[in-house]
Amino acid sequence: MARQFATFLIKKQWHQTPWERRGSIYMQQTAFTSALVIFYARPFTRSAGLPSFPKRLLRFDESEEALHKTLLTLRHKVYAHSDDESYEVRPISFGRGFQTAIFRPPHFKLSGDETKRAIVIIDKLLVGITSELSELGKELT
Questions:
Q1: What is the 3-state secondary structure (H, E, C) of 53-76?
Q2: Which terminus of the chain has a smaller tally of CB atoms within 10 A, N or C?
Q3: pLDDT tens across 68-101, in order?
Q4: Cα-based distances in Å from 102 to 44, 72, 89, 91, 99
């Protein structure tokens, strides 16, 4: 699913900040980017009753490893949870007891390059998973 979301983002060229596109484009981009990040990170996030993803299948070069870590951080601190490092809240007061805050969330986007590189690392993972399943199948027959 993460690969499909990434491919769709590339096809639509949805890599903008809110003010760069009109109408509901940013909202749609946010939905697909959120889905990409969350689905990508799912196998690497601890789940009750499921085993951890085999580390031997993480065969990334340095830049791929950095993107992998970035996607996991985005999942944990922006997309699945709110983290004070990612969101800016600035309290302000207008006198006479009227207080409010300026709230600024992060931009929900990945660059086109990041999205294309995400597809590359997803493909690497899929090759490793397919190979592992094939070997497992041989052992069972």
A1: CCHHHCCCCHHHHHHHHHHHHHHH
A2: C
A3: 999 999 999 888 877 666 666 777 777 777 777 7
A4: 34, 27, 6, 6, 10
In the chain, helix, strand, coil percent, each to 5? 60, 10, 30
Tokens of 20: 């760069």
> 62 is written with which tokens?
């340095």
The structure's pTM equals: 0.81
Residue type for position 69 = K
Give the count of domains, the chain: 1
How many Å apart are CA 35 and CA 126, to the nearest integer? 18
pLDDT (average), residues 7-30: 92
Phi, psi (5° rounding) for residue 93? Answer: -130, 135
- Which residues span the domain enclosing 61? 2-140
Residue with tokens 């789940």: 47
Q: What angle do CA 18, 77, 67 make, to 5 degrees?
A: 80
